[in-house]
Amino acid sequence: MEKIETFFVDFIKKLGGKCVTHNADEESFVWHVRPLPSTSDIQHPLARSQTDHEFPFHTDCSFESNPPEYMALFVLEQDQLGGGQFEIIQVSDIVNRLSEKSKMILLTENFKIAVPLEFRKEKDIDHIYGSILLDHHQIRYRSDIVLDHKSNALNELESIISEVPKYIPKLEKYTMILLNNRKYLHARTKILDPRRHLLRIRFNKPALYDVFSIYNETKLRPEYLTLPHTLLDYFHEQHTRLYKTLNLIVQQYHQSTEVGAEIRRTFQFESKIHNLLCELNIHRPNFDMGNYRPDILFTKGCRFTMNGKHRFEPKICEINARFVWNAFLFSVAICPGDNDNQISVNFKTMLDMIIASSQFDTTKSMTILKSKENGFDIHLFQKYWINKYHQNCRIIHPDQVHIINGQLYDRNDGYPIQQLIMELHQDEILNFSDDILHNFIHNTQLRYMNDLRTIFLVHDKRMDVSQEDWSRLLLDLNHQEWIIQQYQESIQYESMNLSGMLFCSNNRCFNLGPIRLSPNKIVNICHGGYFIRPFIHRRYVYCSEQDEILTKTKLHEQLALSRLTHSHWNRNVYLSSSGGSGGKRLFFATDIQENQRQREILVDMMLSKNVLSETDVCLNLFHCKNMYRSLEIFNDFCSMAYCTVLPMGSDVEDDKVLNIIEHFRPNVLMGSPYRLMQLALFIEKHHRTNEKIHFEKIFFACEPLDNLKRDYFKRIFHCSMCLGFYGSAETGVFACQTPEYATTRLYMYPKELVQVDIANGQIIVTNLVRQRNQLIRFNTGDLGRLIPTDDNKKYGLIEVFQSQRLIDLTPGSIMKSDIEEFMNQYDFIEWQLIIENESNNNNRTILTFRCVETTNTTIEHMKTHVNNYLTRCLGNSFSIEDHLTIRFELISYQALIRDQKKSIIS
């Protein structure tokens, strides 16, 4: 069997395939597809392919971030009883029948996909998130491991899969089937013959070239520069203008017009170049610009933001068009691969599109003319051409070119040159004989890049000049000519200058590419510079028409507008209720599936950080009435974590809660600090010595937990830690405390769920999973700061100082909105709450309610209401009189009206 496996692997390698392992075993290239005896070993379960069960249509390795491109099956024994039939369907047949809505969902939404235990390459990764459609013609799908079962798009996909035509190749002994794993789905009927035995190899096509065989890999920084999507819109707009301008310069160069004369005066070419350009315009009027690469300076300005905080103004500083492939192949190699990054999109197809537009014949050899220029990408292009088109690609010195009867040849071996790439400086081109230059002009059968007009007219390398140099040059009477260009000061990033690259060919702008950074004035990779990749969120994930912070008021205005403009605004939504300013009731709508995914991401973090575990039994005392969702949210967390939950709610009597505690012995207690305080006071009064009350963890939310309450809870509930959860009705719960941060104000959040920024000390949140009712740069109303962590890639850490929604009092906090709601019950024209510490006692706080009244108000009635509210918020375990002094100052409205007569006299 080992010899057969070796033969199979060698065969795939000779086809040019790169075999992929099946699991963590580095030699697991060959997988045996045959029914095995069933096992009860949970740690080593059988794969679906190792049973005799029917296996519906699926993609192999759909649980990997990058499923293998190809799969090979080698038949050792076929099913002699007619079972185990191999079936395939074409993905294009499926996609053509999908509705546009479902197609967009399957293309853009990330679904949770389980990784089967037997195929895990990393122990701690049991699932991934990914789209079902990889593009419009490729898929990753296996229905039994897709955990988002509620999607209508998935239901439509399943329905279409059952309807499209099937292809049933015959499996005979020692036959081999090669299948494109992404463009076809395959299935198997139930196996009837237990001797059926196939070998399987998954493999990819190797890269057409190794970028780091030429480039120094250490020069590529692992970080990204985050840029706004509006920057790409700006570059496309600028490129449209640039392309029109460059075309006009080329077309008008030889014309007897004012524009043509001005262009010629500007360039002032020598006669040989001038005549060459004029003849090209006459004899090759259909000008193709070919490849050109405008370089971008990141200068000081306020147009765009980098990494969410650094402002800059992009400016085109020069146009590289002399060396056709300069940095193109490097960018194609390092930029694709991230579906959420807009930078990745066009680089996947850029080379194919350029070759097609150049009209090169891919069935013929290619010649590269090269001498002085060392070049990087031109060597990568040579490998690309050979491996992609299986044609020769030779690099020869320009002196080897000679002409016989109007045909170019290699002087050394007499090989005809039918198409070529020029990697030449302008002076090297001018060194060609007149016959060869004449051939470049008149031989329309000869294909070459770039056009000589591009090299001489479009290519533009200008150096900036310092103020000292200006003075010296302009005062030098012997200096005959110079080029004047405005000096643009680059933004300094820890002594690093930045220079971007825009990749263009003819009238198409593909994308912004890698950004070069260097401490030197000239940003050069060979002299101490580095590359860093840009990251621009895809629009469906992260987009906003205005670069501003979103407030709660503005957000709910948007939702109100949505009610008027979208007839189905209230369908398939998860509604959360929250209090607004002045006590106004507000509702926030989230897509049901997106809300579910947010909770799944957070629970994954909770499990990995030991916040929850499958062995936990949780008593849930959160609130649930009147559309408040706290109870349900934490029930959901427990269900997703596969732990037991006791959903009691906040309104149940304390003695009944105690009965449940004694019966089920939960180890986790959940609730708001206010509800937990009620239970603690009841236990302390009636059941102080009850040994059955013992909790390992307390989960709290809805309001802060001060140290006094924390210590009290630990004593009454015999609990070792209290863990807080952070979020709001608008953001959802997106962060929680972990055991290592239980005694701090630090909260951990998954970076795939939210992006957290700090603006003027305020916590600003962008939800990265919501496409419907997007939440972008939302001001939570809290103050805090970001904390560096050892796990920067996956999780972030934020310290929450205080809430702008809350008023901090010793020993607790009260809600501003509750105070507003309470005060609005009274007929006051204006009111003000003044909070200050007593001058001789810093531990005592004075609350002064100053009110402008129109009618007489009973102060005692107000005092009673305020005391009841503060008792509810701060708890009964301490006396309000010991910590607070409450004053009321009533000001009559009439007393504020100025006597008009006295005012005139005075």
From TrEMBL:
Keyword annotations: Oxidoreductase
Coiled coil: none
One Gene Ontology MF term: oxidoreductase activity
Residues covered by the TauD/TfdA-like domain: 47-201
Origin superkingdom: Eukaryota
Pfam families: TauD
Signal peptide start and end residues: none
Keyword ATP-binding: no
Listed SUPFAM superfamilies: Acetyl-CoA synthetase-like, Clavaminate synthase-like
The protein, known as: TauD/TfdA-like domain-containing protein
High-level lineage: Eukaryota, Metazoa, Spiralia, Gnathifera, Rotifera
